Amino acid sequence: TVCSTPAAVDNVSQYACQRRTTTENHNKMFTDALEVLAESSEFNENEGRCLAFRRAASVLKSLPSAVRSLGATQGLPCLGEHTEAVIEEILQFGRCFKVEEIQCDERYQALKLFTSVFGVGPKTAEKWYRRGLRSFKEILNEPAIQLNKMQRAGFLYYRDISKTVSKAEAQALRCIIEETVHWIMPDAILALTGGFRRGKEYGHDVDFLVTTPELGREEGLLLHGILLYCEHQGTTFDATKLPSCNFEAMDHFEKCFLIVRLYEDQVEGGLQRNPGDSRAWRAIRVDLVVPPVDRYATALLGWTGSRQFVRDLRRFARKERRMLFDNHALYDKTKKMFLSTTTEEDIFVHLGLEYVEPWQRNA
Ligand code: DGT
Ligand code: MG
User: Fold this and answer.
1) Quick one: which residues bind Mg(2+) (predicted)?
2) How many Cα atoms sit within 13 Å of 289 on the Cβ side?
3) pLDDT at 50 over 80
């Protein structure tokens, strides 16, 4: 399908939460390029530019067809001069030279490689780069580098966890975790969140929310038996606090960042494996988040994502409704009160937004 008439893209909202974005991206050629530019801006600590490229990519992802001419982008929100130039270049040459330049850049390559390790963020990656380190081998052979527990596990299982996770593997993990959680607490509630809840076929990890029907019984809910590694964070949740405006800040719920062993015969159709690897298992990254049941809906919405969708939901709440929204709560600044949210639908209703299904939140 070709989208060349401006009328076809009329009335696209600047907010991702007012668009419906499925996993079907008709403009991958453009959005992949913009993602490289966003990432490079992030590495250069230019948050504004990074966000601008991510917003532009998100708008293109929501379009019902491929952009075939610059005219087709007329009237679309969030597409700045820079993005227009990228689109034009790709339309004309099939590639963007700035993007290729970045991809060949030594610093970009090193930071991308280092941040692909579990437990390594842009700050650590930059520190290693400044020390002159360029490869995993150099990092692991540098005596002055002290890896923390998370990073050691990240390197140990790198081959496995840098590989995508399939839907079948996510489903298998769901069964295992459900069984374990129910063994500990028979009436516990488990939900698959993240990209898999949005209908993605592949992911980089598997995200779950666990809670109990009775408030307070979720405290200290722990898992046993299947864990290879557990980075546990106790709850720092404070029910009196107003929702945070900082999207990048982690929420305060109890959570575990895990690496789980998944066996071949636990997965329908088998494991995603590296070539030449005949092991009967692979390691997979799993996030388990334990909100109290009265925060289940806000936590579910926040952890279902996508990041861009949730980021814009929070911006929409603040800018258009004078409300504060994060993974813990929804607060009305005009009425000076917290709004009750039992389901995701309640949150959309409070915000005066049409409900957007999880599979339409791939912004
Ligand atoms: P994936 O795993 O790469 O296939 O894609 P997702 O969408 O599952 O992304 P993931 O696993 O990084 O995170 C799942 C959702 O959880 C994401 O859409 C937003 C939320 N989330 C994760 N980390 C943070 C965080 O540090 N801050 C906030 N506010 N939200 C986060
Ligand atoms: Mg995920």
Assistant:
1) 205, 207, 287
2) 29
3) yes
The tens digit of pLDDT for each residue in 283-334 reads 999 999 999 999 999 999 999 999 999 999 999 999 999 999 999 999 999 9
Q: Strands, E, within the chain: which ranges?
A: 2-3, 66-67, 165-166, 189-192, 202-203, 206-211, 227-233, 254-263, 281-290, 323-325, 330-332, 337-338
119 and 239 both lie in a single domain: no
Same domain, 208 and 306: no
Please list, in sequence order, all residues whose beta carbon lies within 8 angstroms of the beta carbon of residue 316, skipping any fewer than 6 positions away: 15, 17, 18, 351, 353
Q: Strands 330-332 and 254-263: what pairing?
A: unpaired
What is the spatial order of strands in the sheet that 227-233 belongs to? 189-192, 206-211, 281-290, 254-263, 227-233
Q: What residues form DSSP beta bridges with 330?
A: 325
Determine whether 294 is an active site residue: no
The CATH number assigned to the domain holding 278 equals 3.30.460.10
CA 303 / ligand 2 centre spacing (Å): 8
130-150 residues labelled b (16+ CB within 10 A) or e (exposed): eeebbeeeebeeeeeeebeee
Residue 348, classed as helix, strand or coil, is helix
Give the span between the Cα atoms of 319 and 8, in whole angstroms.
Answer: 27
Which tokens is 213 given? Answer: 């029907």
Spacing, Cα 258 to ligand 2 middle (Å): 12
Q: Which domain holds residue 171?
A: 165-296
**Shared domain check, 41 and 90:** yes
- 32 annotated active-site: no
37 & 93 share domain: yes
- Going by the annotation, the residues of the binding site for Mg(2+) are 205, 207, 287
Which of 32, 287, 294, 346 is an active site residue?
287
Residues with CB under 6 A from ligand 1: 194-195, 200, 203-205, 207, 247, 250, 302-303, 305-307, 310
Q: In CATH, what number is assigned to the domain containing residue 139?
A: 1.10.150.20
346 is catalytic: no
- Taking the centre of ligand 1 as the mean of its atom positions, its distance from the CA of residue 307, in whole angstroms, is 6
